[in-house]
Write a structure and sequence with these properties.
24% of the residues lie in helices and 15% in strands. By secondary structure, the chain is α/β, with parallel strands linked by helices. It has a single domain, classed as Rossmann fold. Strands 1-2-4-3-5-6-7-8 form an eight-stranded mixed beta sheet, with helices on both faces. A hairpin with a 4-residue loop joins strand 1 and strand 2. The longest helix has 16 residues. The chain is globular and about 65 Å long.
C-alpha cells in the first residue's frame, strides 16, 4: 500500500461546512416417515391462509430503503443532566420495534461529525432503516441504537472550528457516554450492559471520537467503527502541524481487546484522505486485528451508511460480511 500523506491543503478543507454533510439535509414433513394422513377438515388443494395472516415482508433493493409493511420504530429524543458537560444534554434512542417484554438488547452508540447533532444518523444516514433491515433480512442482532450529541458542554454549542477547544469539547464524548449517558440508558431501557453488548461508531469527527472513546475505555466497549475519521490533531484545522491527542493504538489485554474494529473511507474523500489509511497502517503495525475497506463514495453520507451497514452485520455475535 502506498503511503498517503494528509497535506496541509487537504486539512484546510475541513473549514468547508458542506463537507461534513450537516448543512441542509438529505435517504412439511413431520419427521415420522411413511404416508401422511389427510386431515378430514383440510380442503382439497391445500390449507387456505387465514384472512388475518401477516404478509411476509419483501427485502428492499437497497439496505437504506423501507420495506412495505415493516415497522421501523420511532426515534425518541431524550434529555438528561450531565456532570461531565455541566448542563442538560440530549440524545436520541431507537428501540427494536418488535422488542418483547422481558428481553434485553445490546446497545450501539452512534457519533456524529462537525456541525451535526444526535439526530443526524437517523435523519441523514438512514440508521433506523439500516439496523432494522439488517436484523430482519440479513441475520444481524436486534439492538438499541443511541444517537449521541458529542458537543459536550453546558449549552451544546460548538466552539470555533479553528480553536483547540473544539476538539477538547468533542474529546469528552467517551467520558460522557461511560459516566453519564450509558448509566442513564441502562437505567431506563432494557439494555444489556456488558462490554460485549456495547458498541460505538461514528463518521468524520465522530469517527475520531469513536476510536478515542473505545481505546480510552476498553472496559466499556467491545466493538468500534470509524468511517472517514477525522485526524487526532489537537486542532482540527492543522496547517503542517502534527500534534496528536493519541500517538498509537494499544490494546489493554486485561480487558480482552475488541471483537470487531471497522475502518472505512470513500475513494473520493478529499477531506480526510490519508487519515483512515494511516490508522489502518498503525493498527496493522501494532498487530491489532481489524477490517479496512474503501467505498466508491467521498466524504459523504453514502460512505457512512455503507460503513454502518457493514458494522451492524459484524457486531453482537452476528459475524457476517456486507454484500
Amino acid at each position: 500500500m502506498k503511503r498517503l500523506v494528509l497535506s496541509a491543503a487537504l486539512i484546510l478543507m475541513f473549514i468547508v461546512p458542506a463537507a461534513f454533510g450537516c448543512e441542509g439535509g438529505a435517504s412439511a414433513p413431520d419427521g415420522t416417515g411413511g404416508a401422511q394422513v389427510q386431515d378430514p377438515q383440510e380442503e382439497i388443494g391445500g390449507v387456505e391462509e387465514p384472512d388475518d395472516a401477516e404478509p411476509v415482508p419483501v427485502r428492499p433493493d437497497d439496505y437504506r430503503d423501507r420495506a412495505d409493511g415493516v415497522d421501523y420504530g420511532k426515534v425518541e429524543r431524550i434529555s438528561y443532566y450531565s456532570e461531565v458537560a455541566g448542563g442538560t444534554k440530549h440524545a436520541t434512542v431507537l428501540m427494536p420495534p418488535d422488542a418483547k417484554e422481558g428481553e434485553r438488547y445490546p446497545v450501539l452508540y452512534l457519533l456524529h461529525g462537525l456541525m451535526c447533532d444526535e439526530n443526524t444518523w437517523f435523519d441523514l444516514c438512514s440508521a433506523a432503516e439500516i439496523v432494522r433491515n439488517a436484523a430482519l433480512f440479513e441475520g444481524a442482532a436486534k439492538m438499541i441504537v443511541v444517537g449521541v450529541n458529542s458537543v459536550v458542554n453546558e449549552d451544546e454549542v460548538a466552539p470555533s472550528m479553528f480553536s483547540e477547544e473544539l476538539s477538547e469539547v468533542y474529546d469528552k464524548t467517551g467520558e460522557e457516554i461511560v459516566k453519564v449517558l450509558k448509566p442513564y440508558i441502562d437505567a431506563n431501557y432494557p439494555s444489556l450492559t456488558g462490554k460485549w453488548d456495547t458498541a460505538v461508531a461514528g463518521f468524520s469527527m465522530g469517527g475520531r471520537e469513536a476510536l478515542l472513546s473505545a481505546f480510552r475505555h476498553q472496559d466499556a466497549f467491545g466493538y468500534v467503527g470509524a468511517f472517514s475519521s477525522a485526524s487526532f490533531n489537537k486542532s482540527i484545522v492543522s496547517i503542517g502541524v502534527v500534534d496528536p491527542v493519541l500517538d498509537e493504538f494499544v490494546i489493554e489485554n486485561a480487558y480482552g481487546g475488541f471483537r470487531y474494529i471497522l475502518l472505512n473511507i470513500g475513494k473520493l474523500d478529499f477531506m480526510t484522505s490519508g487519515v483512515t489509511q494511516r490508522y489502518d497502517r498503525m493498527m496493522t503495525d501494532a498487530g491489532i486485528e481489524h477490517d479496512f475497506y474503501l467505498t466508491s463514495g467521498g466524504h459523504d453520507f453514502s460512505t457512512w451508511s455503507d460503513g454502518l451497514h457493514t458494522f451492524v452485520l459484524n457486531i453482537f455475535g452476528s459475524g457476517k460480511s456486507a454484500e
